[in-house]
Amino acid sequence: MSVAFAAPRQRGKGEITPAAIQKMLDDNNHLIQCIMDSQNKGKTSECSHWRLPIYCLLYMLCPDRWVV
Asked: CA-CA distance, 53 to 34, in Å (whole number)?
């Protein structure tokens, strides 16, 4: 999965396209599903593994970061 590498390419270039936003949303959804699966299996310690990628995606989706 390209979660850690998809968003930084967009950084600072002002090239936030609807496709790039959708990719980040899809990646975020996948990570949330992984967390829910881990919680349902009682593997809560694995949930912290997904925390940083989600924070990075949420940061990249923040409108204040977009250059217009």
From this structure: 12
Q: Which of 33, 37, 15 is nearest to 25 (CA)?
A: 33
For the chain, report the end-to-end CA distance as a whole number of angstroms.
28
At 54 the pLDDT is 87
pLDDT tens-digit series, residues 26-48: 999 999 999 999 989 998 888 88
Helices assigned H by DSSP within 1-68: 3-6, 18-40, 51-61
| Domain edges within the chain | 18-61
pTM of this structure: 0.64
**Which of 7, 17, 16, 14 is CA-nearest to residue 59?**
7
Give the CA-trace dihedral at 20, 62, 53, 8, to 10 degrees. 50
